[in-house]
Amino acid sequence: MPQLNPNPWFFIMLTSWLTYSMIIQPKILSFISTNPPSNMESTTTSTTPWTWPWT
């Protein structure tokens, strides 16, 4: 059964992970976010309790 032979597939997997880790991932992480978080003031809203008609 050829799928049990890890010789060619392990090298392909290792090469693809190294390519992703060393080349593609830093390029993706270097992009600046289009919507950076801003320091906004937190607003507190006043709520009124619900009045139940049967109490």
TrEMBL record:
Keyword Ion transport: yes
InterPro entries: ATP8_metazoa, ATPase_protein_8
Signal peptide: none
Transmembrane segments: 6-24
Keywords: ATP synthesis, CF(0), Hydrogen ion transport, Ion transport, Membrane, Mitochondrion, Transmembrane, Transmembrane helix, Transport
Subcellular location: Mitochondrion membrane
Pfam family, one: ATP-synt_8
A single Gene Ontology CC term: proton-transporting ATP synthase complex
GO biological process: proton motive force-driven ATP synthesis
Coiled coil: none
Chief site of localization: mitochondrion
Annotated membrane topology: Single-pass membrane protein
GO MF terms, alphabetically ordered: proton transmembrane transporter activity
Family: Belongs to the ATPase protein 8 family.
Protein name per Swiss-Prot or TrEMBL: ATP synthase complex subunit 8
Gene: ATP8
